[in-house]
Amino acid sequence: MNTIAIKCIQRDIDEIKTNSKDSPIVFADPIDDDFFVIEAVISGPSSTTYENGIFLLSIKFSEQYPFNPPKSVIFKRAIMHPNVDEYGNFMSELLKPDTWLPSMTIKNILEHIWARLAIPDVDSNECDLTRAHLYKTDRERFETMAREYSLKYAAAT
């Protein structure tokens, strides 16, 4: 087992625990002491259809972390967003091997996801084409659906 990866993941989790004041990150912890699978929760950005939502994520890392991006970042409950496919997979250029930076931390990843909730990237290759099309062509319908998903699956009030 790669101790460098585990040390980096532990360091990242400790950073979140000690620097979470005024952060959208509610928590991040390993699942069953497996530091290669992290469960995290972020709050929805204010003034968005995701406001007041609590979003549960699963992040899977390889033994090459931090030199390689996470293997997957998945929303564990349904969410309507252009950068999340119907299976909950979060898509972002930032998480691609050719654009990933080893200096990225779990906190950076979660803050990037939170920012992407507020401002979707609908013009990149890293989006669900159907959801991005709806977002671009019928924003009102998209936002209504996104709010309904948030109320139903993320306990948004």
From TrEMBL:
Residues 4-155 form the UBC core domain. Gene3D superfamilies: Ubiquitin Conjugating Enzyme. It comes from the Eukaryota. This is UBC core domain-containing protein. It comes from Adineta steineri.
